[in-house]
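Researcher: Let's do a round of design. I'm pasting the C-alpha cells now; please hold your answer until I've finished.
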C-alpha cells in the first residue's frame, strides 16, 4: 500500500473545530467591546452636558437665580437628548446663598441619571479693606 500526501478527513474536521472556537471567542470579545463603547459614549455625553449646565448656572448673575424657571426641560445637544430637572433653594442659614441642584436624565436610558450641586453666594458690594477707609 502506498502512502498518499494530503490531509485526512479527521485532520480537516479537527482544524475546522479549532478555528470555529477561536472565531466564537473573538466574536464574544468584539461584542463586549461594542457594549463598552456604547456605555462610554453615553457617559461622555452625559458628563459633558452636565458640565455645560453647571457652567451656565455658575456664571449666571446671582439675582437671576430667584426668577429662573425650575420646570423640567427637554434639551437636545447634537444627537444626545436629555431632561434637565432643576431645584433652586435659598439657604435658610445664610442670607445671600442659593443652592442649585441639576439632574440630567438621558432620553436613551432613564436609569443613568447624573447630578451636580452648586452653591452660589452674592458677592459683597465692597471689600473688607474699603470698610476701614479707602
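Researcher: That's everything. Go ahead.
Model: Designed sequence:
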Amino acid at each position: 500500500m502506498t502512502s498518499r500526501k494530503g490531509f485526512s478527513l479527521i485532520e480537516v474536521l479537527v482544524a475546522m473545530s479549532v478555528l470555529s472556537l477561536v472565531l466564537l471567542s473573538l466574536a464574544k470579545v468584539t461584542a463586549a467591546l461594542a457594549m463598552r463603547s456604547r456605555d462610554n459614549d453615553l457617559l461622555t455625553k452625559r458628563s459633558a452636558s452636565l458640565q455645560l449646565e453647571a457652567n451656565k448656572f455658575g456664571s449666571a448673575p446671582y439675582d437671576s437665580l430667584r426668577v429662573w424657571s425650575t420646570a423640567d426641560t427637554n434639551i437636545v445637544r447634537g444627537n444626545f437628548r436629555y431632561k434637565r430637572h432643576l431645584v433652586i433653594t435659598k439657604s435658610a442659614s445664610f442670607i445671600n446663598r442659593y443652592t442649585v441642584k441639576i439632574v440630567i436624565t438621558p432620553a436613551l436610558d432613564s436609569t443613568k441619571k447624573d447630578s451636580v450641586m452648586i452653591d452660589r453666594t452674592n458677592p459683597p458690594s465692597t471689600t473688607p479693606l474699603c470698610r476701614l477707609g479707602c
